[in-house]
Specification:
- The structure is a single chain.
- By secondary structure, the chain is an alpha+beta fold.
- The chain folds into two domains: 30 residues; 182 residues, Glucose Permease (Domain IIA), CATH 2.70.70.10.
- The chain is built from two helices and 14 strands; from the N terminus they run αβββββαβββββββββ.
- The strands form two sheets. Strands 3, 5, 6, 7, 8, 9, 10, 11, 12, 13 and 14 form an eleven-stranded mixed sheet that branches. Strands 2-1-4 form a three-stranded antiparallel sheet, with no helix packed on it.
- A hairpin with a 2-residue loop joins strand 1 and strand 2.
- The N and C termini lie far apart (101 Å).
- 30% of the residues are buried.
Length: 259
């Protein structure tokens, strides 16, 4: 209201200290809002914690149809050796790596680790690397070097093909918990005679013989077995089934362990 002549205006309700408090509160609100926005952005860009990610989508009906051999696709490397996908892409349920048996050699996976931790994915996002296909999972278990066992998941009965060009040097039964769990087929790869690539936990094709030549993605080695009764399979955490798979390991010829 207007002041009468000679009347002084009283002290303001908003003195210097009050105004400073308001400014501080506004700054704190802006900072808090910005922090929430940054966290939301990181979660959306790198969501997940690296824990098990169970696949919930139903299997495609095409998995029940004959699939034939896979389209050539390299999934792992070891020096000049290229390990190709041994099952049809239409049959593949998941790819996993874990520590293999004693004497197995660590492989270099191609593609992206699907269950990598947040910090690892953030680092790859910032500096590059760790991208592309196929997607693979790091699994627990084993006693050998990390990433030395390659599990290729597929439904029971799926055909398994040679992952490398070479010559069969051994066909032996695999024993798990006292039971026969399929066969192990040892292949001496062309161009790497000091190595042996083993494909195990499959039902071997009866037509195979030691000394037979095999071609990657073309020569049928056998088929996927149901081994869920023998052991609990780690790959099952990332598939819609019990995690049945073909197992691939690479050894030097001198250290290959026979069953």
């Amino acid at each position: 209201m207007p002041l009468r002549p000679g009347q002084r205006r009283g002290p303001s309700r908003f003195g210097p200290n009050r105004a400073a408090d308001i400014r501080r509160r506004r700054i704190a609100l802006v900072l808090a809002t910005s922090l929430v926005a940054v966290i939301a952005l990181l979660v959306s860009a790198f969501g997940g914690t690296g824990t098990a990610q169970t696949v919930s989508a139903p299997s495609s009906p095409t998995r029940l149809l004959p699939a034939g051999p896979p389209t050539p696709e390299v999934v792992a490397r070891l020096g000049s050796l290229r390990v190709q996908l041994p099952v049809s892409q239409r049959r593949l349920t998941a790819i996993g790596y874990f520590a293999g048996s004693n004497g197995s050699i660590a492989l270099s996976p191609l593609g992206t680790q699907a269950n990598a931790g947040l910090l690892t994915r953030l680092l790859h996002k910032l500096v590059g690397g760790g991208g592309g296909t196929p997607r693979w999972f790091a699994l627990s278990g084993g006693s050998g070097p990390s990433l030395s066992a390659l599990a290729i998941g597929a439904p029971v009965g799926s055909d398994v093909y040679a992952p490398v060009d070479g010559t069969i040097v051994g066909i032996n039964d695999v024993i798990l918990n006292g039971d026969v769990a399929g066969q192990r087929i040892d292949i001496q790869p062309l161009g790497s005679p000091s190595l042996v690539v083993s494909v195990s936990r499959i039902g071997a094709d009866p037509a195979l013989r030691v000394g037979s030549a095999v071609s990657a993605s073309a020569t049928k080695l056998g088929s996927i077995l149901d081994l869920s009764r023998v052991e609990r399979q780690a790959l099952a955490r990332y598939t819609n089934d019990t995690g049945n798979h073909a197992l691939i390991e690479v050894h030097t010829a001198a250290t290959l362990q026979l069953p």
